Amino acid sequence: MNFDFPDELKQLRDTAREFLVEHCPSTLTRKALESTDKVDRALWREIGEMGWLSAAIPEAYGGLGLGHLSVCVLAEEMGRAIAPLPYSSSVYMAAEALLLYGSEQQKHSYLPRLATGQAIGTLAFVETAGPSNPASFDTRFVDGRLTGTKVVVPDGDIADFAIVAVRSLEEGPSLCIADLGDAGVTRSIRPTIDPSRGHATIRFDRAPAEPLPTAKGATAFQHLIDRAAVMMAFEQLGVAMAALEMACDYARGRYAFGRPIGSFQAIKHKLVDVYISTELARSNCYWGAWALESGSSELAVAAAASRVAACDAGWTATRENIQTHGGMGFTWEMDCHLFYRRARLQALALGSAREWKRRLVGALCARESVATPADIAA
Amino acid sequence: MDFTDSPEEAEYRAKCRAFLDATLPRRRPGHVRGYRRGEDGPDVVPQAKAFQGKKFDAGFAGITWPKEWHGQGGTPIQQMIYDQEEANYDTTVNAIGLQLSICIPTICRWGTQEQRDRFAPRALRGEEVWCQFYSEPSGGSDLGSLRTRATRDGDEWVINGQKIWTSLAHEADWGVLIARSDFDKPKHEGLTFFYLSTKTPGVEIRQIKQMSGASHFNEVFFKDARIPDSQRLGPVDGGWKVAMSLLMGERYSMHDEFGPSFKELFSLARQLELNGRPAIEDGGVQDRLAEFYVKAQGLRFTRHRIMTSLARGEAPGPEASIGKLVAATKIQDAASYGLELLGAAGAEMGADMALEGIFEVSFLDSPAFRIAGGTDEILRNTIGERVLGLSPDLRADKGMPFKAIPVGSK
Ligand SMILES: Cc1cc2nc3c(=O)[nH]c(=O)nc-3n(C[C@H](O)[C@H](O)[C@H](O)COP(=O)(O)OP(=O)(O)OC[C@H]3O[C@@H](n4cnc5c(N)ncnc54)[C@H](O)[C@@H]3O)c2cc1C
């Protein structure tokens, strides 16, 4: 039994935390929130130089080949710092899609640039409100050309290329890759609940694109989303932890009625419930990380469980952080809203908890036919 | 990161399984017996004692206890592996669990080698049963408010007062007792710790009927009950420290309390129909089931994290504190949700009901988990103060002599 991250990754976590505290303070997030210039390119390249963008990319493609556990560790720190960086888009989505389904040539062409931070990638899949069903995407890939409109594309304002989910026809490709600078691509920047990360609507009008050759059918898309969800869950956990710590700090130092507000049980017990939710999320996330790294067939279930638990932790922690701060918590000036915004952005980005709950039960039902009931529950 | 046992752990697990397979039936979903099911039965305690004896003979009693305590000198990880395995089998042994988690460890920690030799083996073999005389009508959460009086008389102490909610006192041979030896001191400073035979003249035990209908706990009256000073543990007026030394010792349960969990709800939702389709296909049901699943898995993998620390010889992190609090409410909620799925028919009780009737039984039994062994509220205080570093409650009775403090129900 060794259900923990290895020591070298704990060191990586400490280094990352230190670095981000110094180089990516919340003032940077705030700056992104308040301007149209979302990403600090110098910081992004520095992160690339440290290998954070390429941790899971094999050495053959310019990466460090450290595996996905290292990305989980870094993701948590990115969340903790509410970093205004396209980390999730580039690393959990674009790089991951290429690693899973790209041709050798595509991998060699894109991954080294992603690894250094020279290029930013993203995943464009959402078309309408409600759950995204790959079987009903309108976006089509026909004769090397992509046509359709994708909305709320994360970092769609700055990304150099996108992995685009398309309706898969007769087990044809379900994911394509398109350079966003090409003719036939129009993007319009859209306001979101968390403007510290840019989002865009992207229209493809017979834009040149290439299929990711092994991304066949809807399951390929789901599998990518499952893998991304585990890494995202760690980022969500990081946000939740930081919000909980912020609330506890305030509850220790803020006095009312002659005593620290943390001594009031209404505050104390609530924060304990937040703590519990973060611990349950962490434990589920570790399971997700294990499934991600080991390629376990439990991934679909473990990813959904990580996702559902992390959404809950993010919501309760960021909501109660505002409440614990009282009026101050509702100001633009306090950071509470940065966490609140980011937590919800993350919780929507790969589909909401509601959708994942249903996928979770669906995956359990599917699994039970091959597993014994004893394996299913705690 | 992996879940596989080390070769030594795997070997130990195989030994546990071999013993359990040879001794007990495996537990089916929903199937729990006797005490764990919240029921009385004349055979519950005898069965528990008999199995405890077999456990001892096979080397699985007192796994982590040192040899001087008559234990196996094993590791916490072995204990966890054993507990994990035992949870898959049907046994009532939990009914006498308190003696090995609190009573005998207190004796062994504070008593002489002679006392260890006298009491530990018999408790480990299930020959003698112990109970815990702590809570009183004046308060259980505020244990320091107890008012049972211990008066010194030469080489003896004379005990007068009342304990309540004493689990299993009616079946027990011995009990550990905390009583007030000085009413003038502040409340935690005038307490002394003893053990005594439940057959001591002046001890009267009356069973209390619980809301579930069973009678596991008791009220116990002490009228001039005499205890030799040799049965005092720890210093005079130093009993609080003795009691806390084991109440505070974190216990890492490797399984949930006993009641329905995700497994039972999942089976139920696949059996039942809702609007002509399996209930499991209903979106609302799926939402709730997913929430139960995530909680159950969260607890399960939190235990794996604890186990990992123990396997490295480290103390578990603060996450170890959440288990009981989460599990207790989860069971009550699962019982309630099971009934909700069953609908009008869920009111009927009996072993022929779905999942052997566990939801109905647990509905009536599960409130206990949120009270016994520290209430939800007290646990939240503890976690808030120790883990999150929040300030303690203001105490109205701080520093006051005990006799000046208002206690109990007014
Ligand atoms: C099934 C069962 C078995 C038991 N077995 C034993 C046993 O073997 N031996 C034994 O000694 N005792 C036993 N107990 C007693 C148990 O320890 C107490 O019931 C428990 O500690 C609560 O004490 P109380 O009943 O006096 O309630 P109180 O302490 O009066 O509490 C009443 C309510 O007030 C809340 N409350 C109290 N203080 C605070 C606070 N500071 N902040 C917030 N809320 C507070 C409590 O959480 C609870 O909700 C058992 C109880 C049960 C239900």
Q: Which key terms come to mind for this protein?
A:
heterodimer; A: 378 residues; alpha+beta; 4-stranded mixed sheet; 4-stranded antiparallel sheet; 12 helices; 10 strands; 54% helix; disordered C terminus; B: 410 residues; globular; binds flavin-adenine dinucleotide
Structure description:
The complex is a heterodimer of chains A (378) and B (410). Chain A has 378 residues and is α+β, with helices and mostly antiparallel strands. In chain A, 54% of the residues lie in helices and 13% in strands. Chain A has helices spanning 7-23, 26-34, 41-49, 68-80, 87-101, 104-116, 217-253, 265-294, 299-325, 336-349, 353-368, 373-376; strands spanning 121-124, 140-142, 145-154, 161-165, 175-179, 185-190, 199-208, 210-211, 255-256, 259-260. In chain A, the strands form three sheets. A four-stranded mixed sheet of chain A has the order 1-4-5-8, covered by helices on one side. Chain A is globular and about 75 Å long. The termini of chain B are far apart. Chain B is globular, with a radius of gyration of 22 Å. With 410 residues, chain B is α+β, with helices and mostly antiparallel strands. In chain B, strand 2 (149-153) and strand 3 (156-167) form a beta hairpin. Chain B has helices at 7-23, 44-58, 76-86, 98-110, 113-124, 239-247, 262-271, 283-311, 323-342, 358-365, 376-386, and strands at 130-133, 149-153, 156-167, 174-180, 191-197, 203-207, 217-228, 232-233, 273-274, 277-278. The chains are: A alpha+beta (378), B alpha+beta (410). At the A-B interface, helix 7, strand 10, helix 8, helix 9 and helix 11 of A face helix 7, helix 8 and helix 11 of B. The structure holds flavin-adenine dinucleotide. Flavin-adenine dinucleotide is lined by residues 131-132, 134-135, 139-142, 165-167, 217, 368, 371-372, 375, 377-378, 381, 393 of chain B.
